[in-house]
Write a structure and sequence with these properties.
By secondary structure, the chain is mainly alpha-helical. It has one domain: ABC transporter involved in vitamin B12 uptake, BtuC, CATH 1.10.3470. Helix content is about 70%, strand content about 5%. A hairpin with a 5-residue loop joins β1 and β2. α2 packs across α5, α2 packs across α11 and α11 packs across α12. The longest helix is centred in the N-terminal third of the chain and has 31 residues. The C terminus is likely disordered.
């Protein structure tokens, strides 16, 4: 039972990343009809927002500490972060320690601006072009963004540790009388993903802006005839989708150290998630994300990889084939989407 629950938790952890990225992909496709292969790059940029803030907070200046000497008896030079000099040693150290969660405050405006610039500067010119053209141009954009990150930050993964208070493990099985230690940050990531997913659905369901967007997704021409600038709202939704991907990347950094190709690593899998869930279906994207995450977790166990070598590498694609053979529109796909 312990092993079973552990694999479920691992699946929910990985499924959270899949669901968040797939949610953003589906928002863009559902509103604008664009197949955005640059979405994985947005996930990567979000992770490097955390790297950037961490480096900024660790900027320091040198002072001479007369109370400490080296082996020659000379006073030691000590590096003091500017944050500690401005806010005091304790508060400054706490701010540095919580760099990753604080990166959310940086990532939201940065990702919104990047998303809006991407949509207005490039993608709007490909709305009426074939999906193949959209894939080529957005995939090319993803490669450009990836190489920029590689040039600026280097090719090696960069550690972005979580706050010290969230570094340990928690016995999540104690509630039901089981001994099941699990990393606290992975639990935090799942809860964070759940909050973001709930917030997106609540925004679309209960706000006037969201209701208009849903109406525009169903019948864009009719909404436009009512005098509503639906194009502007869809542009804002593109920015929001970019922000969702960026936030997913920010919080995933402590789990998988950011590197320049992490966006590509998640991109293909996330598109498989979208297809399995159903093109244009937000609930389908979330459901498929968690489902495939759990299946991949169980396929990675020693028993599974010993019984069927390599099953952990292909399980998602096998599930996609089975789902599409039995339900060509995906689990919750809508009629007419990508069927022209």
């Amino acid at each position: 039972m312990d092993g079973f629950l552990l694999q479920v938790l691992n699946g929910l952890d990985k499924g959270s990343a899949y669901a968040l990225i797939a949610l953003g992909l589906t928002l863009i496709f559902g509103t604008l009809g664009v197949v955005n292969f640059a979405h994985g790059a947005l996930f990567m940029i979000g992770a490097f927002c955390a790297v950037t803030l961490q480096r900024v907070l660790n900027l320091s200046f040198e002072t001479i500490d007369e109370t400490k000497t080296d082996f020659l008896g000379n006073p030691l030079k000590v590096k003091t972060p500017y944050v500690e000099s401005w806010f005091g040693p304790e508060v400054g150290a706490t701010i540095i320690d919580w760099a990753v969660p604080l990166s959310i405050l940086l990532a939201i405006p940065v990702m919104l601006l990047i998303g809006l610039a991407m949509e207005r500067g490039l993608i709007k010119h490909f709305y009426k072009r074939p999906h193949a053209d959209q894939i080529l141009v957005t995939f090319g954009l993803a490669i450009v963004l990836q190489e920029i990150i590689k040039l600026w930050f280097g090719a090696n993964p960069i550690q972005t540790p979580p706050p010290e208070a969230l570094m340990g493990v928690a016995n999540v099985g104690a509630i039901v009388g089981l001994d099941l230690p699990y990393p606290i940050w992975r639990i935090v990531y799942f809860c964070f993903a759940a909050i973001i997913i709930f917030a997106v659905f609540a925004f679309l369901q209960f706000t006037t802006f969201g209701m208009v967007v849903r109406a525009g997704m169903a019948d864009r021409e009719t909404v436009g005839l009512l005098g509503i600038n639906i194009d502007r709202r869809f542009t804002i939704m593109f920015g929001m989708a970019a922000a969702v991907a960026g936030l997913a990347g920010v919080m995933y950094g402590p789990i998988n150290p950011p590197n320049y190709h992490m966006g590509m690593d998640f991109l293909v899998l996330s598109f498989v998630v979208v297809v399995v869930g159903g093109m244009g279906s937000l609930p389908g994207a979330v459901l498929a994300g968690f489902l495939l995450g759990i299946l991949e977790s169980f396929a990675s166990t020693t028993w599974a990889t010993t019984t069927i070598p390599g099953i952990n590498q292909i399980i998602i694609y096998l599930v996609a084939i089975i789902v599409l053979l039995t339900r060509p529109r995906g689990l919750m796909g809508r009629k007419g989407v990508m069927e022209e």
